[in-house]
Specification:
Blueprint (H helix, E strand, L loop, with lengths): L1 H16 L18 E7 L14 E4 L2 E2 L10 H4 L6 E9 L5 E7 L13 H11 L4 E2 L1 E5 L16 E5 L1 E12 L2 E2 L8
Antiparallel strand pairs: 1-9, 2-7, 3-6, 4-5, 4-9, 7-8, 9-10
């Protein structure tokens, strides 16, 4: 009997040493597609009226107040995993620094992508730009007798807030669901 009891104990001991079946590694779920948006200021269209600057004048470019909301990649377009989409927006900045108007820009410098519905991208860019505010552009006019290098630093200078039009290019991109941001357009 002792032999049988020892055998049962030995079998039970061996059964406890049996390895459990291997556990399959858990694969993390694929991340949801994400998009990124890059923006840059671009040259005005060729037919844009330009300011004639004289020696006693200086123009101070408007400065975008930070933080400025960037366009959001349209969520309904993420699953399509599109190639990068570029849209251009013209923004009219008034004398207070507010965006008075914004509209899509299409010309030789900003051609529309082919075979892609760009309305969601244009709408996203317009929605962001319309929220932006700036320190307004200024035109500094020094007295005619000014003979320095910076008209804005002259004694008796008159600083006049000035309305301007700015053009922006927005690049909406994604790479295998991972955001990718690039600066495009004129430096």
């Amino acid at each position: 009997m002792i032999g049988r009891g020892a055998a049962l104990v030995c079998i039970a001991g061996l059964a406890g040493c049996v390895s459990p079946p291997p556990i399959a590694p858990v694969q993390p779920p694929e991340p949801p597609p994400q998009g990124a948006v890059g923006a840059s200021l671009m040259e005005p269209a060729a037919d844009t009226r330009r300011m004639d600057m004289q020696r006693n004048r200086r123009f101070i470019h408007p400065n975008l107040d930070m933080p400025a909301a960037m366009p959001v990649y349209p969520a309904d377009q993420l699953a399509l995993r599109l190639a990068p989409v570029v849209v251009c927006i013209d923004a009219a900045i008034d004398t207070t620094g507010a965006v008075a108007a914004a509209a899509p820009r299409t010309d030789a410098d900003c051609a529309l992508p082919e075979a892609i519905e760009i309305a969601p991208f244009t709408d996203a860019a317009l929605a962001a730009v319309r929220q932006w505010t700036y320190a307004p552009a200024l035109l500094c006019v020094a007295p005619e007798t000014f003979d320095g290098t910076d008209a804005c630093q002259a004694e008796g200078v008159i600083e006049t807030p000035t309305a301007v039009r700015l053009s922006y290019a927005f690049r909406f991109s994604q790479q295998a669901g991972t955001p990718e941001v690039e600066r495009i357009g004129a430096p």
